[in-house]
Amino acid sequence: MSRQAHNEFLIFKDCLQSLKADNDQTNVWVSQWSGGLYSSRCYYKHHFDSITPAPPPFCWIWKAKSMPRIKFFAWLLLVDRLNTKDLLRRRHKHLEEGYHCVLCHEHVDETAQHLFFECTSSVTRWFALGLQWELQDNVCQMLIQQQLSFVGPYFMDFFMITVWCIWKERNDFIFNHKAPSLQNWKQLFKNEVNLHLFRLPSSKRFLVMNWSVICNFDRLYSEALLVLSCKSFIGKSLV
Ligand SMILES: [Zn+2]
């Protein structure tokens, strides 16, 4: 025990010795912050009151229905901790092939902002889904603005699945040499939505039909989704 800790221990011991036990009284915890009885809720409220609340998109992530790995991926994107080439460079990792975005030929550094919102490749993916972004430095601000004009529920799921598919397409190209194409990306998107459906209550599944419409999904797929929503069909792949 350090000298300082020992001194504190002696002070604490003196304090305890000065206390007189009253065996007739029941021990209770008293909250000095609210003037009432102590409760965990009261303590947490006092402790976190001084912390500025996170921007709404962070709350949207955890309330969304997507798979945890996609939620975590989206959180990394929002806090700019996704392993883009730009981040690898900031961590002093040397890449022989350079730090350019691989999805376009513009020789632009692969930042999260570029990869998901500015890259011509990503822009075409968003365009296929009927979305255009007003570019700003702050992704949260962009999301808040986009959410206002989004038709239907599950905006955050829609966003997360889209960026997840862009990321998978990018990784497929880098690690599996699979050339990016809008057609393949749409298929990827459909597969993810397909998996996502099982996480929604059967009564709500038809709501994501809007996604298939704006994505120009083929009629067969739309009908299959409808059947799924009506019969609560589980366990088979649609595509
Ligand atoms: Zn690019």
- Overall pLDDT score: 83
Query: Which ions, cofactors or small ligands are bound in this entry?
Result: zinc ion
Question: Could you list the spans in which at least 5 consecutive residues all have pLDDT below 50?
Answer: 230-239
Beta-strand content bin: under 5%
Helix content: 55-70%
Structural class: mainly alpha
Please sum up the structure shown.
56% of the residues lie in helices and 0% in strands. The protein has helices at 3-18, 40-48, 56-63, 68-78, 85-90, 112-118, 120-128, 139-149, 155-176, 182-197, 209-214, 219-231.
Describe the protein:
α3 runs antiparallel to α4, α4 (68-78) packs across α9 and α9 packs across α10. The chain has 239 residues and is mostly helical. It starts with a helix and ends in an 8-residue tail after the last helix. It has one domain. It is 56% helix and 0% strand. The chain has 12 helices and no strands. It is elongated and about 80 Å long. The structure holds zinc ion (ZN). Zinc ion (ZN) binds at residues 101, 103-104, 106, 108, 114, 119, 121.
From the structure above, extract its key features:
239 residues, mainly alpha, 12 helices, disordered C terminus
Note the topology.
Elements: H1 3-18, H2 40-48, H3 56-63, H4 68-78, H5 85-90, H6 112-118, H7 120-128, H8 139-149, H9 155-176, H10 182-197, H11 209-214, H12 219-231
